[in-house]
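stage 2 :: seqdesign
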């Protein structure tokens, strides 16, 4: 490998757009931090981790495990909790905030904003004459856009993607390459990563004496504003109702969402979660990786589901669940502790030395 330009530094310019430089005052305003009295006009060119940042870069600390790095970092400025500012070496400028990780995300967006849409349609794209594409949208190579589909202002549709008949995509959306969208209405600022499938038939069939009869799937997929859906995730359209994903929800890669599922606002679904049909997740539910849900459940607001949990019953609001079948976290840990105690006693019993003599001799 000979092309190493930018190696080891975040934001390789071959792949990531860079803005700036920005002054310290600009950065402080972005994260609602007090403007330092020292050198508010000092200019910074980017962001970097504590261990590699230089004097013209901004870094952050959100995990006390790495407190030792504050005294050693060469970063010009560091975003951190207010009570840690006095731990920072005197060569760096503290930017104290209540939520360092949130502030870090904002500064990352400041230096590395998403590239704007490049208005126009690639000559290899196939666009139905009845499709309505905003003139500020970008339509990539070999894209197919069906009859009466609508693409909103400043949205981007990547190469080899298929937007089906009647689909509506709102403003400022990012549809990556090799995505298919059908039977869907999508709000503003939605991101669909490579390989996402939206709106295919739900898994519905009726058994008969001669085999299975597929149930007609007549619903849609409704995706509200500011949703982000990871690579190779699948969202089936509804059967007689709609499949709905609420505003602000974040869905990781390789998640399966079945027909008629309703997901509330600002939920988090981590990789390889599977949700069966007609299950409802209320607002702010967090589901860890590989958890599975049977159908027709209600998961209450703010519930937290652990990794590989098997959810087979309704869950009340705010509950924390682990295990398969899923149970309250405290009960799960008590059971684990009891099993460990039993296993320890069993090992000790079998490890006791046995006498070579028969007591009756």
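stage 2 :: out
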């Amino acid at each position: 490998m000979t092309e190493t330009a930018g190696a080891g530094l975040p934001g390789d310019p071959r792949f990531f757009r860079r803005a700036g430089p920005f002054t310290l005052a600009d950065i402080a305003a972005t994260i609602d931090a007090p403007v330092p009295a020292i050198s508010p006009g000092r200019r910074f060119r980017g962001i970097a981790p504590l261990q590699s940042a230089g004097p013209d870069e901004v870094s952050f600390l959100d995990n006390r495990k790495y407190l030792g790095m504050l005294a050693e970092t060469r970063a010009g400025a560091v975003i951190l909790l207010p009570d840690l500012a006095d731990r920072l070496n005197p060569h760096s400028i503290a930017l104290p905030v209540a939520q360092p990780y949130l502030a870090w995300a904002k500064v990352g967006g400041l230096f590395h904003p998403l590239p704007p849409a490049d208005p126009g349609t690639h000559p290899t794209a196939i666009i139905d004459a009845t499709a309505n594409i905003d003139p500020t949208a970008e339509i990539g190579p070999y894209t197919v856009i069906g009859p009466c589909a609508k693409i909103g202002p400043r949205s981007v549709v990547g190469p080899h993607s298929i937007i089906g008949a009647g689909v509506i995509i709102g403003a400022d959306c990012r549809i990556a390459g090799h995505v298919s969208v059908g039977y869907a209405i999508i709000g503003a600022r939605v991101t669909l990563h490579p390989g996402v499938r939206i709106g295919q038939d739900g898994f519905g069939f009726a058994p008969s004496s001669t085999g299975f009869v597929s149930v007609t799937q007549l619903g849609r997929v409704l995706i509200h504003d500011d949703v982000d859906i990871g690579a190779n995730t699948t969202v089936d359209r509804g059967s007689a109702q709609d499949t709905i994903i609420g505003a602000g929800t974040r869905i990781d890669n390789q998640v399966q969402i079945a027909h008629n599922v309703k997901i509330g606002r600002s939920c988090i679904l981590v990789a390889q979660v599977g949700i069966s049909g007609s299950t409802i997740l209320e607002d702010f539910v967090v589901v860890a990786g590989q958890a599975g849900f049977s159908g027709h459940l209600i998961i209450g607001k703010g519930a937290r589901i652990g990794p590989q949990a098997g959810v087979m019953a309704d869950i009340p609001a705010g509950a924390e669940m682990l295990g398969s079948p899923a149970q309250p976290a405290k009960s799960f840990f008590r059971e684990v502790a009891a099993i460990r105690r039993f296993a320890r006693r069993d090992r000790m019993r079998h490890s006791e030395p046995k006498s070579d003599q028969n007591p009756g001799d």
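stage 3 :: structure notes
- The chain has a mean pLDDT of 93.
- Residues 278 and 307 are 21 Å apart (CA to CA).
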